[in-house]
Structure formats: structure tokens, C-alpha cells
Amino acid sequence: MTEQDNIQDKDEIKYVRTTSAFDCGGRCPLKFHVKDGKIIRVEGDDLVDEENQLRACPKCRAIRQEIYHPERLLYPLKRVGPKGEGKFKRISWDEALDEIAAKLIEVKEKYGNEAIFLPTGGGFLSAYHFPVVNYIRLFTHFGGFSTHHGNVSSEGAVWATQTQYGSPFVGHGREDMLNSKLIILWGWDPARMNSGTDALYNLVKAHEKGAKVVSINPRYSDTDVIVADQWIPIIPGTDVAMMAAMANVIVKENLHNQAFLDKYTVGFDKFKEYVIGQEDGVEKTPEWAEKICSVPAETIRDLAREYATTKPAALMDCQGPARSAMGGQYNRGAMTLSAMTGNVGRKGGAACGGLMGIPTAHMFFGPFIVPPGRNPVEENHPNRVSVRGSLDVELRLRTRVHTNVMFDQIIEGKEGGYLYDIKFGWFACNNFLNQLGNTNRNAEALKKLDYMVCVDLFITATARYADIVLPATSMAERSDLTRPWPSGPYFGHMNKAIEPIGECKHDITIAEELAAKLGLEKFRHYEEDKTVKKLWRNTVDIKKHVKDYNKYKEDGIWRVETDEPYVAFKKQIEDLENNPFKTPSGKIEIFSERVAKINNPNLPPIPKYLKTWEDRNDPLIKKYPLQMISPHPKNRVHSELYHVEWLKEIDPHRCWINSIDAELRGIKSGDLIYVHNDRGIISIEAWVTERIIPGVIAIHEGTWYTPDEEGIDRGGCVNTLTKNAYAPCGAAALKTCLVQASKEKPEVK
Ligand SMILES: Nc1nc2c(c(=O)[nH]1)N[C@H]1C(S)=C(S)[C@@H](COP(=O)(O)OP(=O)(O)OC[C@H]3O[C@@H](n4cnc5c(=O)[nH]c(N)nc54)[C@H](O)[C@@H]3O)O[C@H]1N2
Ligand SMILES: Nc1nc2c(c(=O)[nH]1)N[C@H]1C(S)=C(S)[C@@H](COP(=O)(O)OP(=O)(O)OC[C@H]3O[C@@H](n4cnc5c(=O)[nH]c(N)nc54)[C@H](O)[C@@H]3O)O[C@H]1N2
Ligand SMILES: [Mo]
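^ Those are the sequences you sent over. The predicted structure of the assembly is below.
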């Protein structure tokens, strides 16, 4: 079947069914109306009855505005002004690639391949031809490159699930919520951050069916507005104190499922010693927790009893609170409560762990085009050790810098104790200047680079620092297979609907053309259309389910028929002997020997509440009395779609601030305020609301860093304020941050 067969003629309008590949938890099936080679309209799923449709999100509905945005990059550009200023001139592909190739050869000769730095990122991550893989191939052929470790997104949750279950596939099919009697949203807000295209719909249905919904969140979230029967506000970063207190109540009142714990877990006794105070002489009572997390002791007690006695109950944790200085403890605490109540592997329960992946639909990072062997820079590094199965993040950091300090390495290099001196940066599929902690410092780092290339669809905040910017095609100009995160199960098929706009190219082509300039003859070439089908044929996971490729392609989606929703660890719970957990003990490890061996008090072998820097105990709180959280935006995917006016209207960029904090500072809704700390100053509109607790402000991540002459970020990028730091478990600590807010302009340092 050809591309054309997929497109039917009807009054000159052709319909192309497809799915997006954003780095967000949804995967919306879309129907493009194409006329004269242009997309004139976008519709959602209409292939099945209303009840079963996967309704497209606002971002996908507005996708035309992104594809045809006047600021979309059309040609290769060369920087003509100072770095960061944003002045570029058009050049030809040949000129651009010749210059880049010459620079690469020069850097390699002068400094070695380690000086070439290749970060990954979230752009187009949910498609199989993940563009960064092509640059990995390219630089591997070229003799190697340096990169980073630590998924900026989910490292806390990944570490926690590896520790406790030995697997990140902890999700249930979303329909399984209809089997729950109690659903606890512990930092989960699927009305805002897409967490499966069918997540909110099934949550609402479960609520209508009678499930009680309780939310534990410093703010009254959009999801709470729709379904929460009870909102329990909590101080950010203190969840594990409340979890330990719930465990304390459950143990003291003998409400735990001892038979489940005996059969499926190891180390519960150690955790019990901690919660009843035998370990450190401090009993983790609800009164103890109240002083830390501000949740009244009675509320904790009631919820503990309700959670332990309502069966089945789904505790839904997520990744956000784990993207913090205490990192994975939060997910470990949740998993432990789930085991104590026997909710793991059960219909209507939840294994917790924050990742929510289901293996059939997830197709976890299986890029078809694999690099030709290992990266020589790492392979030959004297400090390289085998890290298979290790939970010690420091071992992984022997050959790679941590993601959230990658810019520090650029500034400080070997002299500053980092691994490499970086000279050349290749940025594609990320806007990391904007998306990693301490953006002002990140900008200094990019100014210091000898040479930088950025491949993107827009001149992003990061791209403004590049020497050469290369234009990439959008999802409408490509074909691919796409993966939903936790929902379904279903598989997506992206279908090319229009020809590349301007001189945009697929990242595969860019890598191939540069390989030719570099004389890398062995670099394999791929034809997009052919590889997509081959990809389907060679991927057992999809092939097993998708029997009719032509229909899959034509529909842009293949729904997998299942008798009942997927339940994580069902096999383990039904027959542990033949299906052990993938941990060393074969059981759920509430106490982890592997973690104990690391011997770091800030990385305990059982889940614990830990104090951190920039929490309310930090003396810095006197100067910066507000905790800042930075949830994901409902109208963007991080910084993607930032330009789209329709989406800006949905949710204007504002700082949520409680009336008590606002009044203290003379702030009213609509005021332009300054939010600041020692790392930077942003200006942003205030929104005074009771939907956030006093002492906490919320600003959505992803608006673009736009410093003025004084250095005040007028774009209101949260990471101008966050810290370039990581947790002992490797999580990027982006949610741990103290700030001050004021109407007056603070002194600019
Ligand atoms: N629309 C949209 N959807 C997305 C994305 C997007 O950018 N836009 N990004 C996708 C990606 S890459 C990811 S990783 C996921 C992100 O999913 P998450 O990282 O889980 O989402 P966040 O929005 O950061 O946080 C979720 C909730 O936690 C609350 N919260 C913050 N701090 C605390 C705390 O200390 N304790 C508790 N109990 N709650 C807290 C916040 O108020 C928020 O409501 O979303 C995905 N979906
Ligand atoms: N303060 C704070 N910061 C955060 C978070 C937070 O919760 N709080 N969340 C973190 C999380 S979970 C994540 S995942 C990261 C995301 O961090 P990033 O991955 O840096 O975020 P995006 O804004 O999605 O950037 C993706 C870029 O890729 C480009 N792109 C898209 N498709 C393609 C393509 O096919 N080819 C090329 N070459 N480029 C393409 C897009 O235009 C966009 O500029 O942000 C993190 N940052
Ligand atoms: Mo993420």
C-alpha cells in the first residue's frame, strides 16, 4: 500500500488519519483534512462509538497552528548577532553542513571526541524514529561523543520501581479504575497533564459509578475540581511523612494484610520498625506527621483506615513529586502502602510507582535504528564499570554527567571536577536551556561553548545560542509508529499528510547528509516509508497484536482487544513461584539489600521521610519564604506549542498565590509580580487563589526564557528559579525550590 492509498478523495479534500508523537502521556488519534497539500482542519477520533473514542486534547486540536506557525523554521540559519540575541541569517543546507562538518573534524582533532556533547530530550519521543538515535548513530560512527545520565522526567520513579519491583511497568489499563471503590490521587492531575488519552474519562466514569476520590496535593487541581470528594492539601516534599503515619495507623490497628506481606514481600519488618519508632526512637504517628506535612492528624488517621478497609483501592501516585530532592522516596512510600493493603496485582487496585506504563501499549524505548555498537568515548573510559542491575547512581555517573548539571560541566569542565571539557554541543529534540534547573547559568554555559548546533522546528530559547540552527519537519510531514504511554492498549500510526514545509528535513536525513560530508561511508541510509513497515514487522510487541498492517496504517490506530483491563503484576500475584518479581529476592522489596549496600543515609533501604535543602526547615526560608512547585502545563507539552495563541488563551501564564501570601505582599490578581531567589528573577502575572495553600506558589513549566537587558526573565520560565541539582536516587530536583514574590522589583545582582 502506498501513501496515496491512505488518502481518499472526497470533494478534493483528503483525509489522513494519524497520531501525534508529543512527549506527553496522551496519544491522540487525529483526522487531518488536507486540501491542495495543506491541512485545513483537524478532527479527533470518530472510528468507534462515542463511548470508546479517544478524545483529542486541546493541544492536538490546535496542532495546525503549530505546523503553520509564522515563526516555524523554514531554512537553515546562521547566527549573526551575539549568542542569545536571536539574530540569524538564512544559509543553504550545503553551507550549513559544510561548516558543521569542518568544525566537528577540528574539535575531534584538537580535543578528542569526548568534547562533542550530545544531549537527548523529549521532542518526538513517542515515535519509533526517535530523532536523537540518528545523531547517536552519527557520532558513534564518528568516533564517539559524551552525553548525560538521569532521565530529567522520571528518574525518581524509575529508581523506585526498579528498587521495589524490578520493573517500571506498574500501570493498569485506565478502565480498571471502574473496578476501584476508592481512588487516591496522590499528586496526580490527569485533567491537566495528559496521562493517557482515556485517563480522565475513565476517572470520571469511576467516580460516577460510585468510587470515592480523594486528592492529596498542595493545590486544588483541575482534576480535583471535577472529581475530588475530598481535597487534602499538603506541604510539598513531605508526602512520605504522611505515608509513614498512615502505615503507623494501619499497623497499630492491625489493618494490614499480613498474609500478602508474608507471601509477596521482603523487609516489611524493617519498615515497621521505622514507623513504630523502634528504629530511631521516633514513632511516626499522625501527630508527628501533622507537624511536618500540615495535614491534621485526624485526617491522616481517617484516610489510613479508609484506605486499609476499602477494597480494592487505587492509590495513584505520579512522577512530579518524585522530581525533587527527596526523589524516589515518595514512590517507594506509595508502593509500600499498596503492598500493606494487598492492592498490588489486583483489579481495581494500583501497584503505585508513578510510571503507569503498561507493557503492551508502551513499547518502551525500542528504537528500530540501533547505533552501530557502543559509544567509543564511554567504552574506552578508564572509570567505566558494569552497572547492570545496580541502583547506585554514582556508578552511572562515572562516564556521564548528571542531566541536571550538564551545563555546569560545560562551564567548569575537568578543572571543576567534571568528566570532560566540552567544546561542541549538538542539541536536538530538547529545549534544555529552558527545561533544566538554573536557566541563567545554563545560558552562561551555552555562551561558553565553542560551537553549537540546534535542530528544531522553532528558534527556541536554547536555539538562540546556537551557531547554526537546522529546521526539522513536523509530525504532519512524517510517517512513523507511535506509542501511547499508559493508556489503551492501542498502537498509533503517524501518516505523512503534507510535504515538508520550506526546506525542513527529517532528522534521519540530516544525520545522513552530515555523515556524507564527514566521509562516513558505512553510515546506513533508511527510507522512512519502508522502515516504518519493517519496524512493525520486526517489533514482536506490535506484530503480536496488530494483525492487519494496512488497516492499522489507514486508521492511524490499532486498538488491542482485551478481555479485561491490564493489571500490573497480576501474574506475580496469581502464581509467584512461576512468575517471581524481577528483584534479587523475587519478591517486592520493601527493604532493599542492593540499596543498603550503597550505604548512603540519604538513600535508605526502606522508604523514609527525609528533610532536604530548600524545604521549610532550611534557614534559607527566612529570605525566600515560599516553596515553588512547577507542574506541567495543560496547554503545552513543556515548552512545545508555546507560540500557539489559541493555547495561550486556554490558560494564561500566571503565578498561583494564596490570598494570605498575596495580602502580605500587597499583591492582587492581574498584578505583574517578580518571583525571585539567588538564581534569578522572573516577571509574571499573579493569580490570587484559595486553590493553593499558603506558603506555596505554582508556576507551570515551559514558557520560554526571555531575559531583558537587566537580566530579568520576562518570559516567566520557572527554571530561571530552580536549582541545578539531583537527588541521591538520580531524580532531577526541579520541584524543590524556595523563592520570594514581590510587587516591587528586587535588586538585580
Ligand atoms: N498537557 C501536558 N501533559 C503532559 C506533559 C505536558 O507537558 N503537558 N508532560 C508529560 C510528561 S513528560 C510527564 S513526565 C508527565 C508529568 O507528570 P507529573 O510530573 O506527575 O506532573 P506534574 O504536573 O509535575 O505534577 C503533578 C501534580 O503534583 C502536584 N504536586 C507538586 N508537588 C507535590 C508534592 O510535593 N506532593 C504532592 N502530593 N503533590 C505535589 C502538582 O500540584 C501537580 O498537580 O506529564 C505528561 N503529560
Ligand atoms: N521546573 C520544571 N522543569 C521541568 C519539569 C518540571 O516538572 N518542572 N519537567 C521535566 C520533564 S518531565 C521533562 S520530560 C523535560 C522536557 O524537556 P525538553 O525535552 O527539553 O522539553 P520540550 O519543551 O518538549 O522540548 C522538546 C523540543 O524538541 C523539539 N522537537 C519536537 N520534535 C522534534 C523533532 O522531530 N526533531 C527535532 N530535532 N526537534 C524536535 C520541540 O520543538 C522542542 O523545542 O522538562 C523537564 N523540566
Ligand atoms: Mo517528562
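DSSP finds 27 helices and 27 strands in the chain. The CA atoms of residues 23 and 122 lie 5 Å apart.

Shout if you want it in another format.
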